[in-house]
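Researcher: Sequence recovery benchmark, item below. Answer with residues only.
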């Protein structure tokens, strides 16, 4: 399962680190794995996301994800929450909100 032992400040720092990893490491991995993502019609992106969450799990001892299935579901939940947030926040292009 997924366990978190700590207070909300620690949880906030986990989210911050996950955001930093997604901002800096994920684009590099997406570029490197472009052929695999094309072959799998983008499903390999899920593996990349799982790797990012696994990395955060390694960095924070208070976050415990045991097993591949809980890691998969955690990845899907975070992806779904990100999708819902992106639906409510308009994207900016060249300084103009569309």
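Model:
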């Amino acid at each position: 399962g997924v366990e978190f032992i700590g207070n909300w400040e620690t949880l906030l720092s986990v989210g911050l680190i996950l955001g930093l990893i997604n901002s800096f490491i994920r684009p590099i991995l997406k570029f490197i794995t472009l052929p695999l993502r094309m072959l799998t019609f983008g499903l390999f992106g899920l593996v990349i996301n799982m790797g990012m969450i696994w990395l955060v799990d390694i960095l924070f001892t208070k976050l415990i994800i045991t097993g591949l299935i809980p890691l998969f579901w955690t990845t899907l939940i975070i992806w779904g929450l990100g999708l819902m947030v992106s639906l409510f926040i308009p994207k900016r292009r060249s300084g103009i909100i569309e």
